[in-house]
Design goal:
The complex is a heterodimer of chains A (723) and B (549).
Chain A: H1 2-13, H2 22-32, H3 34-55, E1 57-58, H4 77-96, H5 100-114, E2 118-125, E3 155-163, E4 172-180, H6 187-203, E5 212-219, H7 224-236, H8 252-260, E6 279-288, E7 298-302, H9 313-326, E8 330-333, H10 337-340, H11 343-362, H12 372-391, H13 398-402, E9 407-414, H14 422-445, E10 457-461, E11 464-467, H15 468-479, H16 481-503, H17 507-518, H18 524-549, H19 556-578, H20 591-616, H21 618-634, H22 646-662, H23 665-677, H24 686-696, H25 700-720
Parallel strand pairs in A: 4-5, 4-6, 6-9, 7-8
Antiparallel strand pairs in A: 1-11, 2-3, 3-5, 7-9, 10-11
Helix pairs in contact in A: 3-12, 3-15, 3-16, 4-5, 4-6, 4-14, 6-14, 9-14, 11-12, 12-21, 15-21, 16-20, 18-19, 18-20, 18-25, 19-24, 20-21, 20-25, 21-22, 21-25
Chain B: H1 4-21, E1 26-35, E2 41-51, H2 54-57, H3 66-75, E3 77-86, H4 91-94, H5 99-103, E4 109-116, E5 128-133, H6 140-148, H7 164-168, E6 172-181, E7 193-203, E8 224-225, H8 226-230, E9 243-250, H9 252-264, E10 272-274, E11 277-279, E12 285-288, E13 295-300, E14 312-315, E15 328-335, E16 341-350, H10 354-358, E17 367-376, E18 380-382, E19 388-391, E20 394-396, H11 398-401, E21 402-408, E22 417-426, E23 431-440, E24 456-458, E25 462-469, H12 478-481, H13 484-490, E26 494-498, E27 502-504, H14 512-548
Parallel strand pairs in B: 1-9
Antiparallel strand pairs in B: 1-2, 2-7, 3-4, 3-6, 4-5, 6-7, 8-14, 9-13, 10-11, 11-14, 12-13, 15-16, 16-23, 17-22, 17-25, 18-23, 19-20, 19-23, 21-22, 24-27, 25-26
Classes of the chains: A alpha/beta (723), B alpha+beta (549).
Chain lengths: 723, 549
Amino acid sequence: MATADANAGVPSSQPSNPKPRPIVRIGTFLISHSALFSLICCAAGILALFLLPVLAKNTYVSENALMPGSANPMFSNHDTMEANRLVKDIMDLKLSSGIAGIEISNLLGKYMRERDADVYHHNFHVQKNQFHLGNFFSDSSYSWHMKENRSCSQYGINTVAIIRAPRGDGKEAIVLVSPYNSTNIRLSDALSLGLSYSIFSLLSRVNWLAKDIIWLAADSQYGEYASVAAWLKDYHNPSFLDSDKSDDCTCPESNALLSSKGQPNTGGSRFNVFRHAGTLAAALVFKVVDGKEETKDTLSIYAEASNGQMPNLDLINIVNYLAVHRQGLHVKVAKLYSVLNSAWLRTVGQIFEFIGKTAKIVNPQWGFGISAADYVEGTATLASSIYYQALGIPTGSHGAFRDYQIDAITLEMSPRFSLYNEVRRLDFLLRGGRLLEGVIRSVNNLLEKFHQSFFLYLLSAPSKFVSVGIYMIAFMLLIIPLPMVAASLYSGPNKRESSARTNNENPDTAAAIVTSSGSKSWKWLHAAKVVFVVHLWAGLVSLIPYLINQLPERTPTACMLVWVLLSFVSLIILYWIAGSPYSYKISHQSPNMEWAILKAVMISVASIGLGLMSIINYATAQIGAIFMVPMCLLAHPLKHAGNAGKLRVLSLTTSNMVLAVIGFPPAALLLVKGWLEGFDGVSFGDFWIWAETLWTWNSATYLYLVLIQLPCWVLCMHILLHP
Amino acid sequence: MGIIQPVMIVALVVLGCFNLCYGGEEFSEELLLRPLPDRKVLAHFHFESTTPPTKDYGHHHHLFPKAIYQLVHKFRIRELELSFTQGRWNYERWGGYDPISSSNAKPPGVELWAIFDVPLDQQSSGSIRYGALPREAVCTENLTPWLKLLPCRDKSGLASILDRPAIYRAFYHSQRLRITSNEFGSEGIEPGIDLEQTLTIVVQPDDQRTSTSYSSGKMLQPDWSISSIFGRKISGTCVLARSSSVFFELESTLVSELNKLGVDNAASDGDQVYPGVELSVAPDQVIKERKSSSVLFEFSVKKHDYKPLDIGVKWKYPIVWSCVQAPFQANRFLMGSGNERGSIAISLKATDHQRIIVGDEFRDKCEMRVVIFQVVPWYVKIYFHTVQVFLDGRLEHTPAVIEKIQVSPSEDRVSPGVMEIALRLPCSTVSAVITVNFDKGFLHIDEYPPDANQGYDIPSAVVRFPDIQASTYYLGDNSSRNSPILSKFQENNPVLSYTEVLLVPLATPDFSMPYNVITITCTLLEKLLSSPDFVQVVQQVERKITGAI
């Protein structure tokens, strides 16, 4: 009873002074120590990023229905002979004719029809995507380039065959894509066609199919992605108007050839009818490359689609499981090889290894340590995973499927021995065939679409992943200081003023300060106007390439020059219209406060931008945050650096200068390119080329660079050059 | 043994008496076999029970299933058809013009339609009902009750060869039940209740000669017999059946191909019914079709009572033919992607046989009517004003093509949307596409079915050609033949085909998320509340202890 009384007595002893709520107190505490906290958070963020390979978990097949490897493979040596038969036929064709594309397509059609499949040839035009207003994220069906002139020179023929599952209801289908270059067919292409065919013929005999199988032999003479994307577009958004369709009479040659090879009693037109097969459940792009691996036959998995979208992790899991545990293949995912040999990364790895070992000595149950070699491997893989996701450009034709929410990956097999070694080739085909059969059978087992496992993840090895719950920590730690510092900057000048008021007893100045503090709450308006004008300008800059694309006879360097020039001119014009960012200081005596508020507004806008970007493409936001957060936090006018110690001034100025250079997207690109490939080959137009690829692929990274990073950099420049 | 035999004889006499004494009720069993162009075989079982009207005959039946009789009387059914189907009928290869494909090819899953005899004052909601369950899995548990309706079950007669593995291994099987009753109508030629049970299966016979490929690239048709397909032979009739016969049909297109062969290979053996085709049992009767040249070989099971009937076919030469298709091949597919909206497209492609059916001289002038009937669940919200019709690559002015459109919009969570479009197409049309846009609805969390991530089905659309009748007329005296299956084939039914079932992906929530939220919330609550609770409890206990001391 006594304790209860004492507790009750505490608040009653000081009733006159109501304390603010704890959350407010924590907030003010954090804001008042923002410099320290932002340093800690940034350091922790970078550390968390380096810890990711250590924190990676082993993958596991999450969806029970998949049951990979639970059935014995039916793919036998007989099927590899089938594959070889087609390979021989294709290679014989190559020697004989100049119009190999159509010949191969007819040959494939003949083979497919032997399997009782529904066969058709899909003719498509290749359209080069160019930058266009409103083309970003828009549905490609409303594309503007439909009206373009087409010529027979840009004509491709996909050959498509569909097996209708016996007893199936035909609601879903699995797509198997085998790209081949019809103008220059190589043995590897022929082998991927042959193997796909033997799988296809096996599947036409089996009785366990629940989903239809579509085999798309994609004519990749204009790029693998283009052919697959064209087919998918016609599958999902076909045009029924003749004027939109490929005008058949413009290309009499290809049509005549296609029809002449059709069955005599049916005529060729039957094989140009586009056929559908239900909702596409999953897709596998299968390729063979002549890689000459060192130890084992190797399978490379490519999964990144546009804007960092990934297929469901379960799809990668089953491929990895079947390849490693059933077929004994070596499975690879892309790595950044330049990272592999870096000494400092090895040192970091050794430190983590040491910590892990020490922890194990302290408590044997803590098993988080990994060896330094594993760490470096994991980092290289993770770095490439982040890089390709951040770039937002698909790593293969599987990316076209992701645009329609279809899970797809590219499987690229490369043998240990040369493909010309006939004996080894059969063994290689057997493994590849069993792998594909197993994956298709697993996907065929699925009752629901892929949804059990992760969609947001980074791979650190074929069998290890970092899920979104872990890698978002690093980003969050990096981004938390931004609002904190913004708040402290905003409240900082007020404090400074109030302290000035107490020090300075002169009644005149005090009166002036009183009037200025009266309009204090509106001070941020000027800063906000500057920030708004700069962002408006960034919006204009992002649209300028559309104008440049209308110019005839353009070289990358010239385009880049025009882009920079136009951007500069438009900035000046905007300032002329809206007033210079420095015009406001004339009316005020406190330049310090001026830049601080500008910085506060800039930082808050930057944090909003990064937050938005993290929703669209997490990896871009992650990499962007590494550049932008230090740049934003350290920005300080070069002129006003002088009241601290000399060393501090020097370091602040240097870091500001360095960040100013690497924070500018073109400069950063040129530096990275020069570092990787030598500075001889670097040219001014490189950024233009790079940006062009970004908007060709509708990558949101372009929007991020121009709409978020660029204005932030310009505002930082304003602060650095603040008078 | 000595006792059993007289008992059996007595039983046979009694059973035979049913036939004679209760002649009003009739049952017949028939099987039709037909080779298909893609090396498969169609087997079509047809069982039919009829009973005279109640007012003449009374309520007691000896053959007719009581369940059906009670059903008809309870719900005043005029017509009812229920079908359970697995697999898809391939209209391109197995034909779409003959009576079997028009009335026995059914959409996957379950389909039910019924016409009720509704009094005039209640007829506001109409007397016809239609429903389809595309996702229903069909298996033996559906077959058993169906067989129970047969007077002999599957113990004897044609149904005895229904080997379950053979049926469920088939590429397509559809069991159907159709009731026609004239009990309540005053008009009608044949009053009474008619129960028609059919089982249509398409099987691939095992073939030992697969590797035999001729130089022309044509494959030899597989040789098969009833025992090789079903694993059993027909060992007699159902004694209650009035007629029990097996038909083997050669289609008109096949017959003309065979005749061509006959010209090439003049020397033919005695066994061959047609050049190139050899039947293991001599048919009792050969029936020819009037319009086309298709041929039916009839085998009466009664005549083969002394030994099991095992009809087999042997092919001498490779032969390629194709079935007669409906004038347009109907396909349906979804367009668009994403969870927000999409469109349904129904495409009609003119087939090679359109010319044959319509005739060249009328091609330019004539018009063909096509009726599309489509039921859409409420969560697929169709915008009926967005109906667009493309003919041969041109967008048509809709009133010019659409003769009639009948729409009943869906009501959320209450009733599905129904759309019936009657199109009038020029006969020269090569391709026609009808598109209609829809929005995808959101479901409440408790409305999601199990396996919600699979997507949602849109039942098959029905495409009907009212001007074209799928009927065959056989030469000779039909009344003396008295075969229900043949008279069924001669009925005038419009050509009908079903499109594919569609799977629409809808936005599906992460069902485990509420669970996660509950778990986290409960954990936090526990952490927040447990310490004060602990303090209080411990204090009270301590106080009690000190008080006790």
